[in-house]
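User: Fold this one for me? It's Methionine--tRNA ligase, cytoplasmic.
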Amino acid sequence: SVTEEELSAAKKCWRDGVAKLPELRERKHPILPVPGERNIMICSAEPYVNNVPHLGNIIGCVLSGDAFSRYCRLRNYNSVYLCGTDEYGTATENKALEDGVTPQEICDKYYKLHTEIYDWFNISFDRFSRTTSTEHTEIVQDIFWKLYNNGYIIKDWVDQLHCDNCNRILADRFVSGICPLCSYDDARGDQCDGCGKLINAVELINPKCKSCTNIPKVKATQHLFLDLPKLESEFRQHIDKVFDNGIWSQNAKVITNSWIRDGLKPRCITRDLKWGIPVPLEGFTDKVFYVWFEITIGYVSIAATYTKDWEKWWKNPNEVELIHFLGKDNVPFHSVIFPCTLLGANDNFTLISHMSATEFLNYEDTKFSKSRGVGVFGDNAQDTGIPADIFRFYLLFVRPEAQDTAFSWDDFLLKNNSELLNNLGNFINRGLAFVSSSFNGTIQEINLTSEDLQTVALISRELTIYIQNMEQAKLRDSIRNVLSISRLGNEMMQVNKPWVLVEGTPDEKARAGSVVSLAANIAWLIGVLLQPYMPSTSEIICTQLNGNPKNMVIPTQFIPVLKTGHKIGKPTPLFQKIEASLIEKMKKKFQGKQEKVGRNDFLSETLCVKY
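Assistant: Here's what I get for Methionine--tRNA ligase, cytoplasmic.
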């Protein structure tokens, strides 16, 4: 039921109307923080460049960040959305060896491929860069020197695995073995994909060289470490504050707290590799920085490739909110190591305010696997003939926010045909077609009955909850609010039956005009709220309504944006039915197949910074 307070607010807002609606802010690049405004820097986990992202990678980082970024723009927040490819490390070097090319050639190939995939998915970055930029090298080395000069870098000897056959240290992905913590049989030399824990290569049980399968020997080498224990007190003060005041998914809090509870330990930040950012310290110039030290600094360098005034974002902690979107495996690097790095640099860096981490998205009842041909990957999603907006909608609908979820073709069909085609699409097309055919495409005077006012109040309630959910980065909940608004519109049409009223008396015809014109205004609101999820569909809705793009702002209450006398455009169906035969074809195509697997094909299983 609707409260008197809700009815009163609905009545007032309907009366005041669009006059109270601010115009959509024009975005002129480079976007810079504005003192006193809400300045939000949105960063998605940088996808690893050695392979093609699958749908789980896409929802875990770039699509989630894009939906939130689009929402911020519709709220007129001063926001910027940054991302880029993670290009250094053992995975790239190994892939290059496997393919017989240079690491840079691998990076160039896959950067182009990632860019094309994200363009198809309509990901609207303000800047999509890469970590092989000169800006990245300069900023990483500069931050390192600040840490070193401030006393937060220590030297220590490390036992490492050395392959005599390949004559090299087996860092990170160059070695695999049984995890000493969970017994997963293909753990890497820096992290176990089975339990997600960080490990040292020498801890692996039955380790083997990934290139030649030789059993390595232990060899001591000297490395550099970030002195996290020395930073722990200052870090705890910051993390306690943002836990209380920020937007943090529960899994991000739990993972971060587990690191704090165990006590922060020094973390090695160098590797005996060729492909990476050179360590500039004398005695260590034959080493490169560990990818998990330099990659998070990539968010800073990406901003530097976006604007020469990047410090206005990254050295402005009192004016800027930083939010990360990522998979749960990446949490400690972003929630602990990155802020500690910036704190140790002691250069007034902007630190993390919010973090939204997803659980895992599976494919049907198994995991995505490029080598086994299981699941939909970014480069073949477009080959299905299904529009990107439908993939976006479904991935955000099943976004694994609190627990693992799965991409299911049967459920994909159901959501398209029921929620999109029969609910949302049917309501908008029916309402607009009625305005077009019976009222010459012209919005009629809307006279709200008490029942109409209740509908308006209920829609405002859903709108309020939509905003609350989006503010908390609960993206899968907000999309359900949009669908609820559409259902309220459908119910209003069914109850009033304007197709009957239009054939009656002049008063009944006027009532029909009022009903369908109210429906058109509901459609406009849906078009705006749908924009973070289905940007192309949103644009089509607003074009069919012939609305003013400057009114594409999310209001705090449902108001009539389309006034009496407004001429709408030509309505056409928004969605097509997906046939069961197509779904069966897709299941067969992506169910997996036996292929000849290269000796380093394990690299294909993991992407988007290790998840």
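One thing worth pointing out: The longest helix spans residues 409-438.
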